[in-house]
Amino acid sequence: MFFERPDAGETAVLVHVDFHDEREREDAGEFLELVRSAGAVPATLLTASRQRPDSRTFIGSGKLEELRAMLAAHQAELVIFNHGLSPSQQRNLEHELKCRVLDRTGLILDIFAQRARTHEGKLQVELAQLEYMSTRLVRGWTHLERQKGGIGLRGPGETQLETDRRLLRARIKAIHKRLDKVRSQREQSRRARSRAEIPSISLVGYTNAGKSTLFNSLTDSTVYAADQLFATLDPTLRRLEIDDVGPVVMADTVGFIRHLPHKLVEAFQATLQEAADATLLVHVIDAADPDRDVNVEQVERVLKEIGADDVPMLKVMNKIDQLDSAPRIERDGNGMPEVVWVSAQERRGLDLLEQAFSERLADDVIDFSMTLDPEQGKLRARLHELNAVREEFFDEQGRSVLEVRLPRRDFNQLMAQLGERANTYLPEILQEPIEW
Q1: Which of these, 38, 274, 285, 337, has the minimum number of CB atoms within 10 Å of its CB?
Q2: Is the pTM for the entire model greater than 0.70?
Q3: Which residues are annotated as a binding site for Mg(2+)?
Q4: Which residues are annotated as a binding site?
Q5: Is residue 371 in some structural domain?
Q6: Do 284 and 373 share a domain, yes or no?
């Protein structure tokens, strides 16, 4: 650590303030889940109601006394706020309470640090932590009493502080450079998939909505999934075969949360870019959550922030087993799937979800009959390899009559490989205009 603080304890007193402004309010239940996800043991919860935060201690002198008494009663060594604290507020609270004080951003960063598994994920978390820490660095050197001035008290403090700031800036610069390389590698992978015309599906949604469980159920993977916030930090890609579409790449991404610290969004830009560049976004929603509408709004806000708000989206209402609801597809005015109700845990409705993927991605599937002479056996064999032949019989002349259904993209690629024109085999209604 770059500054000295009292040792953190496992037992924590929680502080939650209800503000009159709805936009500033946080969810106390979600706060409790965050604390438990971080591994702390909640001792008690101090609640307050204010018009606006106190500039010095956030909660005011009266509540500060209550908080001090709670710490003594529960012998707690940690106070966690369900709100963002300014560096001065955090410093003042630690000075008054003589214990460690953590705000909402610091709590989320701590959870992220525990969950990150890949090299990239650890770099992203470290970057967010360093940028968060840089604004609070001055607190570490109060023991030098720089503020008092005087001979012999100015230079060393300022020199040490500037040294640490320089080290921070250098480390942040180095991490940015390494993450730029990661972004470049991911961009190359995306371009390669784009050239191969392989569609990509990104799972997005509020944290603990069941994205990883759904991902595992669809792809037969073993990605870590748990009933806790931010179980997934590192993006995972898997191949999935979809009828009428062929192979697609599915990505499991980090969950969103209300008032997600902006620095975290910036730090996880490389990860979230998978969502921005997806062919289809699958917004997984906890159908049983009473705050699901608010959570949906928060996810859509983050998607807009990363430039993914114009990507086609399919909503998935998950956890219907908690609602005693049946799997179903809801369609828009054009008959396209808009919402699919499933239970990833019980693997109910997954066939409907894959059907919805097929309908949303296979937007140009051609279905026609073609007749092939015996010498065109290579074309016939390749169509069978693509599982494009629905039915086949032979006419009186010994020619193969095939009922074919496949994406136009795959048919055009096959024709190009064989050196033939696709329009030669297509009925006039399906033929593409010839570019001269």
Answers
A1: 337
A2: no
A3: 212, 232
A4: 205-212, 230-234, 252-255, 318-321, 343-345
A5: yes
A6: no
